Amino acid sequence: MGRVILCVGKTANIPFLLKKPGVHVYTAEELCYCIREHTFLMDEEVVCKELADWLGEECGLPKLADTLHTMLKKNVTTEEFLTEVLVYTGYYPREEIRRLSRFLRSSSARSEYENRKDIGDYLAGNGKYELAMEQYRRLLADVSGDAAFSARVLHNMGCVCCRLFLFERAAELFYRAYEAGGEQENLIRYLAAKRLSLDEKGYLAFMATQPKACYEASMELEKRVQQVACKWEESIQNRQLEAVRQEITSHPQEAGRVWEDAAQQMKESFLTMMREN
Residue 17: phi, psi to the nearest 5? Predict the structure, then answer.
């Protein structure tokens, strides 16, 4: 049986805007949910009088507001301030609150650049690619003297471009990451992006002009491509797709129905897998 969660306070008439995640919250519980889901984005910006006032006036939690106002006078950390909100609300179990507190504490111990990169990674992981690239670009300009850190940022920018199917741009970024950090993995990713941006003839012509280091990296890339191809051949999804192809070939006039049935089967398979996990 799940935990029973008793809500505190009331629903606000005027929401509070958490600027970095860009979310409006209407209750203390929604605030706690956002603290957990957007932990990477929680910084000193949320440690403010406005949030304390909102919890007291809009959410009907004057005791919590008084406690937060007292904490603000003592210049407490982000971890201390938000932990007080989490504990008072009781939205999460104690162990989860301790975990979040540890994360917030470690965030304050990391460098500004690491935290800024985490924000970019968070945005990229949630599909906000343009915002992530802008975050990375600003960060890259500020860490130009740190080759190893620049390589990590460039690598992530390359990954974002791949998600956007901008393979030529991704190749440029991966190569810059390789030049900055010297890691073989970035060279392999550079070649993978080039392989995706060119047809087979163009890729072979490109490889013919590359140095020995690229040739060795290309051998590792082809090995990985073969491994992925083998896994796909043996996968359930491939067998399902092949069955769909055969049925459409046999009954082309029913292609729409066939695709709908296949999509439904895959959906049910996915839901079953989620329940089992």
Answer: -95, 120
Residue 125 burial (C-beta neighbours within 10 Å; 0-12, 13-18, 19+): exposed
The answer to whether residues 79 and 105 touch, using CB atoms and an 8 Å cutoff, is: yes
Taking the C-alpha atoms of residue 229 and residue 34, their distance in angstroms, rounded to an integer, is: 40
The pLDDT of residue 112 is above 50: yes
For the chain, which residues make up each domain, given as ranges?
16-109, 112-198, 236-276
What angle, 0 to 180 degrees and rounded to 10, lies between the N-to-C axes of helices 129-142 and 147-163?
Answer: 160
Separation of alpha carbons 54 and 197, rounded Å:
51
Q: Which helix (H) or strand (E) holds 141?
A: helix 129-142
Give me the architecture of the 112-198 domain, per CATH.
Alpha Horseshoe (1.25)
Q: What is the distance between the alpha carbons of residues 38 and 45, in angstroms, rounded to a whole number?
A: 13
* Alpha-carbon gap, residue 79 to 84, rounded angstroms: 9
Burial class (CB in 10 A: 0-12, 13-18, 19+), 11: middle
Max Cα distance, the chain (Å)? 76
Dist CA 246 CA 250 (whole Å):
6
Q: What are the residues facing 17 on neighbouring strands?
A: 24
165-198: per-residue pLDDT in tens? 999 999 999 999 999 999 999 999 999 999 999 9
> Cα dist. 73→24, 51, 101, 202 in Å?
26, 14, 21, 65
